[in-house]
Fold this sequence. Notes:
CATH superfamily of the domain at 60-67 and 131-225: Bacterial muramidase
Radius of gyration: 24 Å
Number of helices: 16
Helix content: 40-55%
Order of helices and strands: HHHHHHHHHEHHEHHEHEEEEHH
Largest sheet: 5 strands, antiparallel
CATH class of the domain at 60-67 and 131-225: Mainly Alpha
Shape: globular
CATH architecture of the domain at 60-67 and 131-225: Orthogonal Bundle
Distance between the termini: 76 Å
Strand order of the largest sheet: 4-6-7-3-5
Amino acid sequence: MRKLSAIVLALCIFTVNPGAASESYLDLAEVRSFIDDFSKRHQYPKSFLTALIGDVEKQVQVLDAIQRPAEKKKNWREYREIFITEKRINEGLQFWAENAVILEAAEQQFGIPPEIVVAIIGVESFYGRFKGRYPVLDSLVTLGFEYEPRKKFFRSELEHFLLLTKEEALDPSTIKGSYAGAMGKSQFISSSYRRYAVDFDENGKRDLWDSNADAIGSVANYLKEHGWQADQPVTFPVTVKGDRYKALLKKGLKPAAPIIELSQYGVKLRDDSPVKEGEVALLEFKKDNSSEYWVGLNNFYVITRYNHSSMYAMAVYQLSQQVKQDFKDYVAQN
């Protein structure tokens, strides 16, 4: 009887939710419509795409992660401590030294300082240490059909991903990246990969996973295409007084406030400020019990095109300056 009861119990467990095992994104009408439309517009084999999406597993962790990005849950002190560390600086110095010729070539072609490229790759993937653990196809399908705030964006990225893997002869079912689908050492999303990645080592393919040359050249090309101005400053600190400066904070990240008008808002330039004219954006970085204030110039705004966060861009900038400051001594000692 005990044996019979165990068998009955096991059968009950497997039949409590008979539909669970057969759940598939192919059951959704909007997914089937996507497959039909994409296949027709891009002459993409429908049977292959159906099989791909039929094997997709819902990424619950992705839906959770996208709703709590680091920029929203941390203040500037906490955020800075993630990226401006001795280990990341030291590995940045090593990455620069090992790729000095490539970085110099990228600066010559694209006009981007080596330290900025080094810092972006350092912040994005810790110089290739963390390239992502989520299956990109599964992440993009999950976000494209389940994340209501940005369904349109992620479905577009899903399209770009499918086209990218076809163009670059990649297996879409094996590629891993961030929870939002960013890939490689430079953490490009699919649309950026297609538009801005370059074959900088000229071996016939754009490889952002294993080619430092392609990762470096692609980051440099991305920044150039977004308007980087060579030999121009990025950002510098200011002080504020009163409350009128708060009106400038509402203007966003794009430089729009004339420097000559800052004093009217209680914003004071320091004597060593690198520029005295042009337009800037006022930036506030909240710490535990205080704030610090900087102004962002065009090149700071360009960095935010990589990640639309002032804390991200400031982490890139400060890491770049620390690496640049230590580089000569590192080369001399090694």
